[in-house]
Each structure stands twice: as C-alpha cells, then as structure tokens.
Design a protein that fits this description.
The chain is of the alpha/beta class. It is built from eight helices and twelve strands.
Length: 248
C-alpha cells in the first residue's frame, strides 16, 4: 500500500514556553485537497510554518512524514527541494531580485541542476499567459510594489513552475476582492489540471475560496487540535453556526 503524500502524527509544537499545537493528526493522500479552517489564534499559521521547518517553532513531540519518510528534523531548504511548497499569507518583498531571477534560482535548487535562463523564461511566459499576467511582470522586483492580487498570483506562478508534490496555501485568499480571488483560484485549478497528483493543504477563514477550489476533506482546528473533520458540508455548518460549538 502506497504511503500518504503527507502525514502528521500527534504533532505538538511550541514557541518559546507556549504550546500552540497540542496533538495534530492529519493524513493527505496524493491528489487530495484538504481545507483547514479555524478562528484566529487556533494555530493555523503555526502549523503552516512548522510544516516548512520555520526555526521559530519547536516540535516537542510527534512526527511529520512526507512520502513515508520522517522529515521532522529536516531543514526548510531540504523540505523545499524535496517537493514541499508554502504560499505565504503575507509574501515578503525582495528588492533587487527580479521575479525571473528568483524563479531561476528556485527551480535550479528544486531540480538540483543549473536551469538555463531561456528555459525559465519560456516556461514563465507560458504560465503567465495561463494566469492572465502581463509578461513585463517578470522583470519587476519580487513582490516590491505588488498589489495583494499580484502577490498571490506570483505565488501561484511559483507553485506552477516549481512543480512541488505537496503545497501548503496559507490564507491565499487573504486581502483579495472577488475578482482577484477568482483569478487566483482558477490559476490553482489550472495547475492541478496539469498535475492531478499535486496534494494541497488550503488554510482559510472563508467559504468563498472553497466554492472555487473544491476540497476533498475539511478540518476544523480549535485551540491547537483538530476538533472535527468532514466534507464540504462541514464548511456550510461553520457558515451558519460559527466556531462556538467546538470551543470549550
């Protein structure tokens, strides 16, 4: 039997002296989309950061598995090269580094070879056309002066070109108006149509992105634990009742 693409076993995570995640169990199989929802302070962004190996968060017990291998102690760099991708809630600007330069460096690291500038540019122009992005975008400094929608489309561009096996999308819908949300959602769906085995953990507060990107499973994170898991009907319950039913 093939191992899940991603699995968390009784994951406990602390920052300084405060325990934030208090025993999270999660199994994501190849090609599945899992939505993670929860109120502010429930541990969603802590979980996303921990999965990519952020040094500010300490795993005190439990394990993280990727393709059946324990990666709990792996560095952020090693996880990224292996095929784990994180789209940030607030992508940082990097002055002096163009989008095309950044992508060439990232693709070379991901593939373990020196990817040519021509190959990067050819692939980039193809994906920009698919995502409805102006080709001049390639020469702009990474996220510098970008609107919220441009930052998120740039994250989708990275997702497309780096070809990860598992993507963590941390509140990709944050700060987007309805039109921008639809553009970004179509981009994610376009990537998955070409790479159907791509697995996604989509962290969000809102149902609206889940109307565009249909999850296979939905999880509710409350006070550092998954309080309930289910199908899209669980989202509808949240919209009607909120989180009060799960809070102690």
């Amino acid at each position: 039997m093939e191992a899940p693409i991603f699995e968390l076993k009784d994951l406990h995570v602390s920052t300084e002296e405060t325990e934030i995640l208090k025993g999270v169990d999660l199994v994501v199989n190849a090609g599945e989309i899992h939505a993670l929802m929860g109120p502010n302070g429930s541990g969603k962004t802590t979980l996303a950061s921990t999965l990519l190996g952020h040094p500010g968060y300490r795993v005190t017990s439990g394990s993280i598995f990727f393709k059946g291998e324990d990666i709990t102690e792996w560095s952020t760099d090693a996880r990224g090269k292996a095929g784990i991708f994180l789209a940030f809630q607030y992508p940082e600007a990097i002055g002096g580094v163009s989008v095309v330069q950044f992508l060439r460096q990232a693709m070379s690291a991901r593939k373990g070879i020196d990817v040519s500038a021509l190959e990067v540019r050819f692939s980039m122009l193809d994906w920009m056309a698919r995502l409805g992005m102006d080709p001049s975008f390639a020469e702009r400094y990474l996220n510098e002066g970008f609107s919220g929608g441009e930052k998120k489309r740039n994250e989708v561009l990275q997702l497309a070109m780096l070809e990860p096996d598992f993507a963590i999308l941390d509140e990709t819908d944050s700060g987007l108006d309805i039109d921008a949300l639809r553009v970004v959602s179509r981009g994610i769906n376009e990537v998955r149509s070409i790479r159907p085995d791509l697995s996604v953990l989509l962290i969000t507060h809102y149902q609206r992105i889940l109307d565009e990107i249909k999850p296979d499973r939905v999880h509710v994170l409350i006070d550092g634990k998954i309080a309930e898991s289910g199908t899209i009907e669980l989202v509808e319950k949240l919209e009607k009742e909120g989180y009060d039913g799960w809070k102690l």
